[in-house]
Amino acid sequence: MADEENPVRFGILGCAEIARKICRAINLSPNSIIQAISSRSTEKAKQFAIKNSLSELVKVYGNYETVLDDPSVDAVYIPLPTSLHLKWAVLAAQKKKHVLLEKPTALNVEELDQILEACESNGVQFMDGSMWYHHPRTSRMNELLLDPKLFGQVRTIYSSSSYLPPPQFFEDDIRTKADLDGLGALGDAGWYCIGAILWAMNYKLPTTVTALPATTRNSSGVIMSTTVFLHWEQEETTAIFYCSFLSHETMSVSVLGSTGSFHVEDLIIPYEESSATYNFTSGACFADLHIGWNATEQEVRVHNELPQEALMVKEFSRLVKGIKDFKIRPDTRWGGISRASQVVLDAAKASADGGFKSIYI
Q1: In the chain, pLDDT over 90 holds for what percent of residues?
Q2: I need a labelling partner for 233 at 20 to 30 A (CA). Which of 48, 144, 178, 273 fits?
Q3: Which fold has domain 133-307+342-360?
């Protein structure tokens, strides 16, 4: 529950399953509250409020427009299908509502550019819903990446995000529908892999992006599983990621530098809510006669004050309060991070759709 004066008041556009997690995060964050929720019907919104034990003070609406027209709402969280992001994110920005947008942010970078332009021209904050950026573990790993002695130059990166949902998923879920969320596994799971890889490269875009022929689609042509190769020509760095709805649960990233390396198994959602670990090695080499190693891998544990999704909401709300209370300009860094991911996602899809040829960025 918010304990600061004048907390940021959120409206929720849609009652998707992920909205339950973000509602909890808004309640846990000290500088935000839930002001309103909406769905395509009032009854569905009411049932969502009951299921999630929301306060009776939370307004319940049967359409999204009413949330955007509510003067008591400062910011909106949008967990709608990707095909609806452009319409509702732009309209929210035009109504002067700050935008926390679920990933993937758009169907393509042209749509995302329209969203970002609307946010910038209306002076509202934009951020996508990638939670792992906000975990303190990520900051600790970033310090390691920037240490030339311990880590050196990034040479290659491996990332995987996959899960095997129940059979009904492939019949009913929007992520399998070409007209609702046509990016499939590439947009859902692959977004995390792309973000992790770009983060490790300080968000420098690769020279080329190439989807590999081992790509599986459903009957509607939506990607269910794919592997993608990235290359940075100047740095002579490579990366590869695998994203899938057809494999066992993974959410890992390994970054190999010239003098060190680290590995994370649970990047997207930590095994534990109150702390997370990463494994790190620096300066390792074989011992004499190659009968062992001169160093063992270290496990580093990082504790966090709030769940990572609450830390995301807290940071977003801090930026919103800065804009509201002190007329600070929105932080465009978050939009830049989302745009870089969208550019690579677009290139991966173009490669997969175009005969697996390399796409130059």
Answers
A1: 96
A2: 144
A3: Dihydrodipicolinate Reductase; domain 2 (3.30.360)
